[in-house]
Structures are given as structure tokens and as C-alpha cells.
Amino acid sequence: MSHETIHVILVDENNTPVGTMEKLEAHQKGALHRAISVYIFDDQRNLLMQKRAASKYHCGGLWTNTCCGHPLPGEDSLNAAMRRLSEEMGIACPLEQQFDFRYRTELSNGLVENEYGHIYFGKYNEAPLLNPIEADDFIYVSLPALQKQIDADPGKFTPWFKLVIPKVLQHLPAF
User: Fold this and answer.
1) pLDDT at position 4
2) Could you tell me the CA-to-CA distances from 42 to 1, 25, 48, 78, 168 in Å, in that order?
3) Among candidates 165, 136, 135, 125, which has minimal Cα distance to 149?
4) d(CA 32, CA 47)
5) Paired sense of beta strands 33-41 and 112-123, if any
6) For the chain, domain boundaries
7) Which of 19, 22, 36, 142 has the CB geometry, 3.0–4.6 Å to 81, for a possible disulfide?
8) How far from 148 is each of 130, 141, 144, 152, CA to CA, in Å?
9) Which secondary-structure segment (H or E) carries 162?
């Protein structure tokens, strides 16, 4: 999928669709668009994280949540989350939407993440089958150890992950 033109769903502050735009252009212009982020936990509540492929056009080589992406025009967010989880990590498991998260952050290469994100949780206990175009590595990490790693070396993690992880932790009791 990385070689074809992908369009994202542009939205307003209420998450109402207002059009579409090519994905890279949306990130260049900082246009608000819909996104999905998936957080997979094992039975011990360890988070499955991926190290983004070094070849990615932004944030390559950084650690982040299990997977993320964008619904395609006409695709609902749950189907997009399931599709991206399969494409990036080779995983199929039930997902449940936990909350929405609106954020804007400027990336080091001049791109802007301006997203209205739907956050999904799921459970899975096995090793993923990484797509090398998407991810270079994975780890299941305990949440206390993860917080220590973020505090010690925040530059190892994607900007959006550091913004949303506190809210993810708030939603764990319901999971």
C-alpha cells in the first residue's frame, strides 16, 4: 500500500467529514483528519509496541503503539483499525473503541500531525508477524517499565504516543 496514493478523511473539530486529501499533503499542510490508533495488551497488561520501520517518511526508528493509520474514504474507523493491525502486525483480534483523542504536533521534518484519533484496545498474547515496510521490531512491555523508559529517553518514542499514553493508562481499569 505504501506506493499507491492514499487519501485521508478531512474532518472538522466535531469529527464531521468535510472532504478528503492525499495523505502526505494533509501532513504537509497540517489539515485536520481522522486517524486510528491501536493498543494491544497481553493477559498481563503488557503493551505490544512496535518500532517503526527506519524507512518510514516520518518518525522512522521510533517506538510507538501497536499500530496506527487512517480510515480510507468510505471506511469506518473500526474496520480501518482492524485492517492496519493486520497490515502492520499480522494480527487479527477483537478491538474495542475506548476514547477519541484530538491532537496536533509538529514533526522534525516539517510535517504536522493534526488528527482526530479513535483509540482502540485489544488483547493478544503471541508474537506478531511484522510487515518489514511498517515495523522493524516489537516488544511487549510492562506499563511501569514503559513509563521509566519514556522518562529516561523520550526521544525514542513518537510524539503522538507520548501525548496519548497518559489517557490510555486512565482507561485501563475499564479494559
Assistant:
1) 65
2) 28, 36, 8, 20, 15
3) 165
4) 28
5) parallel
6) 7-174
7) 36
8) 26, 11, 6, 6
9) helix 159-171
Measured CA distances, 110 to 19, 29, 59, 99, 131 (Å)? 23, 10, 12, 28, 26
How far are the Cα atoms of 16, 42, 118, 141 from residue 159, in angstroms, in the given order? 25, 24, 17, 18
Residue 48 belongs to what H/E stretch? strand 47-52
In terms of pTM, does the model score above 0.85? yes
What distance lies between CA 80 and its chain's CA centroid?
A: 11
Catalytic residues: 68, 115
The secondary structure of 91-120, three-state, reads CCCCEEEEEEEEEEEECCCCCEEEEEEEEE
Residue 114 neighbours by CB distance under 10 Å: 18
Asked whether residue 35 carries a pLDDT value surpassing 80, the answer given is yes
Neighbours of 166 (CB within 10 A): 9
Task: Please report, as a single letter, which amino acid is at residue 36.
Answer: I
Tens digits of residue pLDDT in 36-51: 999 999 999 999 999 9
Cα(168)–Cα(172) distance, integer angstroms: 7
